[in-house]
Amino acid sequence: MKVTVVGAGAVGASCAEYIAIKNFASEVVLVDIKEGFAEGKAMDLMQTASLNGFDTKITGATNDYSKTAGSDIAVITSGIPRKPGMTREELIGINAGIVKSVSESLVKHSPDVILIVVSNPMDTMTYLAHKVTGLPKNRIIGMGGALDSARFKYRLAEALEAPISDVDGMVIGGHSDKGMVPLTRLATRNSVPASEFLSEERLDEVLQATKVGGATLTGLLGTSAWYAPGAAVSGLVQAIACDQKKIFPCSTLLDGEYGLSDLCIGVPVVLGRNGIEKIVEINLSDAEKAAMQASAEGVKATNALI
Ligand SMILES: NC(=O)c1ccc[n+]([C@@H]2O[C@H](COP(=O)([O-])OP(=O)(O)OC[C@H]3O[C@@H](n4cnc5c(N)ncnc54)[C@H](O)[C@@H]3O)[C@@H](O)[C@H]2O)c1
């Protein structure tokens, strides 16, 4: 199993590290445009192999896509991250050009690749990857919902005063502060609805904290976060590589599902060796449907900028 990660910055390196530590891939190739940067990150990570006990071989390349040839999965994290006060949508001018050229180069050298798009604004970048590569829809996956759901579970566990392993919850919709739709109605603590333990007001606080989860960290760190994004990407890569058939909310091209078409947005999907193997349609309440509709309008407005 060969995995390429484009962008050896904060998220790319974190994702490569988690993939290696989980020890399911034979090879990870890091690519960056900055001379020597990916090679340096790869060497540093390889020097953790004997300490962390993994056999994955990590190499780096400066903008040389011949080194990525024959990749089964490629992750696109190249681009600029947001600074405090910025929205993800404001990154589009620079990141659209980067995601376009990177997607084309990846597919040229690995025609059978499954792409995972991380660069923001992620739903629009995933849509752009479809437009420029023409790959079948099961082979282009946007990562946002897996991270937003992890942040949702963190906030739920905090409110419930419960261990995170006792908590389940999912965020669908667009990967933006306004567009996220945390499904508080379906959140549970060990199969019991979270609403049995928390007031409507407290659940709404959890929802609001989840929606600004990325912005909160950007304010604290001065740039966007990387550990949870890297871990979320590694979870998707593992589900595909190990054919796990796990459900994650991912951004995918919709064709009538959830009453939406011609956009990529977060919905639950089954991930396995063929990428997105199924889009899971769950029954939403009228309020959730309205939130999804509003989220889709936001994503479409950003798509109109590419
Ligand atoms: N989808 C999500 O949930 C999520 C979460 C966190 C971050 N992000 C996004 O991921 C992206 C990366 O964030 P980061 O914090 O790792 O940024 P970063 O600046 O640390 O790393 C980005 C890397 O991309 C490289 N790069 C730029 N242009 C390139 C090109 N044409 N080819 C190859 N490499 C190139 C840069 O040299 C840099 O090393 C940002 O757009 C950020 O908004 C998305």
Largest sheet: 6 strands, parallel
Broad shape: globular
User: Percent helix among the residues?
Assistant: 40-55%
SSE succession: EHEHHEEHEHEHEEEEEHHHEEEH
Task: Set down the secondary structure blueprint.
Layout: E1 2-6, H1 10-22, E2 27-32, H2 37-46, H3 49-52, E3 57-62, E4 73-76, H4 92-109, E5 114-117, H5 122-133, E6 140-142, H6 145-160, E7 167-168, E8 171-173, E9 180-182, E10 188-189, E11 192-193, H7 200-211, H8 213-221, H9 227-241, E12 246-255, E13 261-272, E14 275-279, H10 286-303
Parallel strand pairs: 1-2, 1-4, 2-3, 4-5, 5-6
Antiparallel strand pairs: 7-10, 8-9, 10-11, 12-13, 13-14
Helix pairs in contact: 1-9, 4-5, 5-10, 6-7, 6-9
The structure holds nicotinamide-adenine-dinucleotide (NAD).
Tell me what you see in this structure.
The structure is a single chain. The chain is of the alpha/beta class and 306 residues long. It folds into two domains: 2-143, Rossmann fold, CATH 3.40.50.720; 145-303, L-2-Hydroxyisocaproate Dehydrogenase, Chain A, domain 2 (Alpha-Beta Complex). The protein is 42% helix and 22% strand. The protein has ten helices and 14 strands. The strands form four sheets. It has a six-stranded parallel sheet with strand order 3-2-1-4-5-6, sandwiched between helices. α1 (10-22) crosses α9 (227-241). It is globular, with a radius of gyration of 18 Å. Nicotinamide-adenine-dinucleotide binds next to α1, β2 and α4. Catalyzes the reversible oxidation of malate to oxaloacetate. InterPro entries: L-lactate/malate_DH (IPR001557), Lactate/malate_DH_C (IPR022383), Lactate/malate_DH_N (IPR001236), Lactate_DH/Glyco_Ohase_4_C (IPR015955), Malate_DH_type3 (IPR011275), NAD(P)-bd_dom_sf (IPR036291). NAD(+) binds at residues 7-12, 32, 95, 118-120. Residues 147-301 form the Lactate/malate dehydrogenase C-terminal domain.
